[in-house]
Amino acid sequence: MALPNGLTALHCTGTAVIGVGVLLQIVALATPNWTYGKYYKYFGDSKVKAGLWKFCVETLKCQDIPEEVLTDEWNTAGAFAILGMLAGLMALSLTCIHFVLRIMAKPTNKIVNVVVLAACIVACLCVVISTSCFGGGVYKQEDFDKEGQKIGYSLILSVVGGYLIGLGGVLFLVACVKYS
To answer: Where are the transmembrane segments (predicted)?
Structure first.
């Protein structure tokens, strides 16, 4: 089945890659597993998982991270992770608008294609800043590496999601330039 009005498989691929990246970023934000392991400093021999806003101890329910523990780096990591997700959502929304306009045979503005790429690049950069702040600021400052803490899957999902958003933006722009 052919795609309507100048849409190509590359348009679809770029949009899908952006969508997967945004989904991974949302999961990374929602899960408290940016770091895990034993944190002897406060919890002795108990296993601890920590995210951007919550921590979980194996013997307790998940709780908000106390304000006195949240450093500027920790808050910065959370803020840039949210900005990355929002930029990715904006890019995904614009690609969907592009699809709707193409299907309705309405003219599309070429500046929208560039804005999609710009939003994807911003999302990717925000994720890089977020993970750098967490890894370099929070992880090292709190001595997680010396305490036996490991990097959790949420941090990895955030990195992969950010780069997928950037890759999807490039694919979408290539499709728009090549097939317009």
So the answer is: 7-30, 77-101, 113-139, 151-177
